[in-house]
User: Fold this.
Amino acid sequence: MTARPPGPVVRVTPRRQNGDMPTLETTPKIRARMSKQRSHDTSIEITLRRILHAAGFRYRVHRKPLKGMRREADILFGPARIAVFVDGCFWHGCPEHATWPKNNAGFWREKIEKNRARDLDTDARLAAAGWLSVRVWEHESAVEAAERIAALVRERRPGPGRSTAEAATEYTARLVAG
Assistant:
């Protein structure tokens, strides 16, 4: 038997795609805390963008890399075909910092596992279209992540007489070779 959190219990029924409606037990305090979790413009994301911008890089923010794909990259370098995703340790199941909640454990495990599967699917779709997906964990140093991204953008950026597709193909060939 699991212990209930102190305070009044609120039953929440989230919608699922398959029609099942699980009942979650939560408190007003937990609901308030969870509703304040940012999905865009987190501190690491803003810091990363500031560092990249200060280094002279220009990019798009919160854009879909591919038409018809319902997923947005946090930072998008169109000509270099690089999509950067800043993943939260809890929401994306960081191998170093992920925690599994005790309340509504089944719901949260399924939710986080689906997020992981969607991330892998996103990476595969982007790779098939010639894009490079870069994942940055929220616990990473923004400076180190920016350096890694900058190096990738410089490698894949089209130069004089070189198209975006050619730059991406050359980059991929170097990775495969060695």
Q: What stands out?
A: The CA atoms of residues 21 and 127 lie 35 Å apart. Residues 9-38 form one domain. The chain has a mean pLDDT of 80.
